[in-house]
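Render this sequence as a predicted structure.
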Amino acid sequence: MLIPVALCAAQSAPNPATSDPAQSAQPPATSLPKHDKPGDQNGPVQEDTKKNKNDRMFYVMPNYLTVDGQSQVAPVSWKEKFAMAAKGSFDPYEFTIIGVVAAIRQAENSDPAFGQGAKGYAKRYGAAFADQVDGNVMVGGVYPTILKIDPRYFRLGRRRSVYRFGYAISRVLIARKDSGASMFNVPEFAGNATAIAISNVYYPAADRNFSANFNNWGVQMGLDAFGNELKEFWPDIHSRLRKWRNPDRKHIAND
């Protein structure tokens, strides 16, 4: 049984420069590539984007694998892909959430062969942690390296919310290659399936069956789709939270 694959580092793109002649005296460094169109932006203006590079969703959830916008970015090497997978697996947040998952499974007495007490909890914790690592390595490292796919989530950010919602879900089906082209998201499907197959090695034999594995695979796919939605909309949520906590700063972007 897999738990959510770690959510990984957000980068944000600055707002497009306007065409107002009065702005022509500004330093050229503030200009953006022509493909960033102001008309595409919907919702609040994003502030302090560079500060959010390693922003944590809801201030605790790791978000290492998010790239803001469909801008041109350098592809990551196979070493970087595995490094990002490891970073997500061993983030302090993950150790905490795995402990919670293991406690829930213990309370429900899932995988009864693990037993109860401290020994049973330790086995459930170890299995949950192995699930986490297996999923991250397969989905974010092994298959992306073999197929030359970029494991990062490329946030859309500048369209209507309904369009962005559909886009985030579609990323479960569509992956971005290192070259920038699109292809079917083989790592998402095959990576999670491989991780579940590996988990049969350390879960009790009584709990190994096709029905349970297929159910776990479906749950993981749903969790990954939900994770994409969080990655897509967290900057908007974050901006609103900051304005709510600091109402006097809501017009800073216009100063």
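Summary. Strands lie at 66-68, 149-150, 153-155, 174-177, 182-184. The two ends are 51 Å apart (CA to CA).
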